[in-house]
Automatic annotation (TrEMBL):
Alphabetically ordered keywords of this record: Cell membrane, Membrane, Transmembrane, Transmembrane helix
SUPFAM superfamilies on file: Alkaline phosphatase-like
Principal subcellular localization: membrane
Annotated source species: Rhodanobacter caeni
Name of this chain's protein: Sulfatase N-terminal domain-containing protein
Keyword Transmembrane helix listed: yes
InterPro entries xref list: Alkaline_phosphatase_core_sf (IPR017850), OpgB/LTA_synthase_biosynth (IPR050448), Sulfatase_N (IPR000917)
Keyword Transmembrane helix (UniProt): yes
Length: 592
């Protein structure tokens, strides 16, 4: 088995081995470098017949299990889209254990996952229907590996990756031994395979220089012997179906059954030409889209998605939901008559992306962060030939709606013009968004930073990280928050922040300036001599007629070491971590 482009990371290996084609997430080659884990229903090719679809049609009960969240890279969507009845990840598997299963940095440990998998196997076996149980391990995830706690240590080396590999190897052996004791084991085809080659990790220096690395692939209970045949991930689905004795009229674009005696090597070569041809084939059957459908250029759909041309496009970064843009990023939509794709890219990379977009137009959303512009967003259209039009400047992305009765004519006008032409259409489109400062219903009020749904109303759309169960990090040079005091308690309030600074040897001090409605009201200095978590109270006064409180947090790092930061230190420009904000009534507050 050899590697092939579009099958070199987890979701790509899953897709290629199930669907007989590499995972090519977009028809636009410009997106390849940064969007591999950013997937939608379109990128998973819903019209393609995959392994799970064949078994679903044959009456199989199908379950996927993995220790990481199934939301990452939209794994859950993929399996449910292609015939699986259940996709179970960290959150789903923890539900029966009240969140008490121990977790590695990426998810559940393999020891717990295999315990749950053997229970799942027994339940499927007992049901009496043919079934497919798909399990993916996690403990060997690079760069360090995280072996399960109850494994016997690997005596030959303290290297963490080798420890994790040794541990997972023993857990897999134990799992197969447990399976072998089950009454239906001899009727169960067991496939062991790599989703991809191990990526850069702490064991790299130990690899022999001449070692030719290949993904693992072998099958139990489907005959004996070896086939001297070169295969790729794309050959796995038809090969395993052949070994199972499942007949199908489904065809696999880039794969074939290599299990038959005398079967030939895959004729594909892993080069750019082959990859480009496969891209063309995979993305040729789209039903098309309509720009300015119902006079709407762009609208907020839900759950951090935008609707453009009749398509819902996720706001995601490196496979995870994104709730905000960093101030040095742009949300880029590439659009043709048939396709639309979304990518969050570094602002510095946008020109390169545009140069590689082919005949696509582009819609760009960029944060505007300066002393004069508190977290606004510029929305611009770049035509197929390079002409540009400014569409709108909006205070928020949440709830955005950009409409015009002449929407299509305006966009077509830009697309037809040459690169040097610029337009200002800000007065041609009507724009609305969610309120910039939602009103607190009463005081005291508590804003928790651990849920995007709860935090979303408060304008956390620039330089915020997605909320975790314990709170949310801000980053870069500034972050924003906004709300309105209740009318009956307008003018004055007390803000009570529970925060934690990010401090390391390379960034030992954090200065924070708190600006309220344009006025600097407080300066905080954090250093490593202080408690990690602090509660800070700040009185605020607003003379805004609508009782609005717009907060801006300015960050600076005196004496910090410039990046790149030391190995093992978070490379992200994390600044201040927010757990909660309590807004208390002031004794001096009155009706405005």
């Amino acid at each position: 088995m050899e590697s092939f482009p579009g099958a070199t990371y987890t979701i790509a290996g899953m897709f290629a081995s199930q669907c007989g084609a590499p995972l090519i997430t977009s028809p636009f080659s410009a997106f390849d470098a940064g969007s591999g884990n950013n997937n939608s229903e379109d990128s998973f090719q819903p019209d393609l017949v995959c392994f799970g679809d064949v078994l679903h049609a044959a009456g199989y009960q199908q379950v996927f299990m993995g220790g990481a969240p199934i939301s990452f890279s939209s794994k859950g969507l993929f399996y449910k889209l292609h015939g699986y009845d259940q996709a179970l990840g960290k959150n789903e598997l923890e539900a029966d254990y009240q969140g008490k299963l121990p977790k590695s940095g990426w998810g559940l440990y393999d020891s717990d996952l295999f315990d749950l998998a053997i229970k799942q196997y027994k339940a499927l076996e007992k049901a009496g229907k043919p079934f497919n149980l798909t399990v993916i391990t996690l403990d060997t995830h690079p760069p360090h590996g995280r072996p399960s706690a109850n494994c016997v240590p690997y005596a030959e080396s303290p290297n963490s990756v080798l420890q994790a590999t040794y541990c997972s190897d023993s857990l897999i052996a134990r799992f197969i031994k447990e399976l072998s004791n089950e009454p239906k084991f001899r009727d169960t085809v067991v496939v062991l395979m790599s989703d991809h080659l191990e990526m850069a990790n702490d064991a790299d220096p130990l690899y022999p220089k001449s070692y030719h690395r290949r993904p693992l692939f072998f099958v139990l209970n489907a005959g004996e012997g070896e086939r001297k045949t070169k295969i790729y991930h794309m050959d796995v689905a038809p090969t395993v179906l052949g070994l199972m004795g499942v007949r199908t009229n489904a065809s696999f674009i880039a794969g074939a059954d290599r299990s038959a005696v005398g079967s030939s090597d895959s004729a594909l070569t892993p080069d750019q030409v082959t990859y480009a041809v496969l891209r063309k084939i995979l993305w040729s059957s789209s039903s098309g889209l309509t720009i300015c459908d119902d006079d709407s250029l762009l609208t907020w759909a839900a759950d951090n998605m935008f609707r453009l041309g009749g398509r819902d496009l996720k706001m995601q970064e490196r496979g995870s939901m994104a709730v905000a843009l960093d101030s040095d990023q742009a949300l880029t939509f590439f659009v043709t008559a048939k396709h639309a794709s979304a990518l969050i890219a570094k602002d510095a990379d946008v020109d390169k992306l545009l140069a590689e977009r082919g005949d696509a137009s582009a819609l760009l959303i960029r944060p505007l962060v300066s002393a004069q512009k508190d977290g606004l967003f510029s929305i611009d259209w770049v035509g197929r030939n390079g002409a540009k039009a400014h569409i709108a400047t909006v205070p928020r992305l949440l709830g955005v709606s950009i409409r015009s009765p002449q929407c299509r004519q305006l966009i077509e006008r830009v697309d037809a013009e040459k690169a040097e032409k610029e337009f200002d259409f800000s007065k041609e489109f009507s724009v609305s968004t969610a309120p910039r400062t939602p009103e607190l219903s009463s005081l005291p009020a508590v804003i928790e930073f651990n849920s995007n749904r709860d935090l979303q109303p408060y304008r956390t759309e620039v330089n915020w990280n997605p909320p975790e169960p314990w709170g949310s990090w801000t980053l870069r040079e500034a972050a924003f928050l906004g709300f309105s005091l209740p009318r009956a308690q307008c003018q004055r309030a007390e803000l009570e922040f529970t925060v934690q600074p990010y401090l390391t040897a390379s960034r030992p001090v954090l200065n924070v300036g708190l600006i309220v409605n344009g006025n600097r009201v407080a300066d905080w200095t954090f250093d490593r001599s202080q408690p990690a978590v602090q509660t800070i109270k700040v009185p605020v006064v607003t003379d805004d007629a609508d009782c609005r409180v717009n907060l801006r947090f300015d960050y600076s790092r005196p004496g910090s070491t410039p990046p790149p930061y030391p190995v093992g230190e978070n490379q992200t420009e994390l600044q201040l971590y927010f757990r909660s904000l309590r807004v208390n009534a002031s004794a001096e507050s009155s009706l405005h």
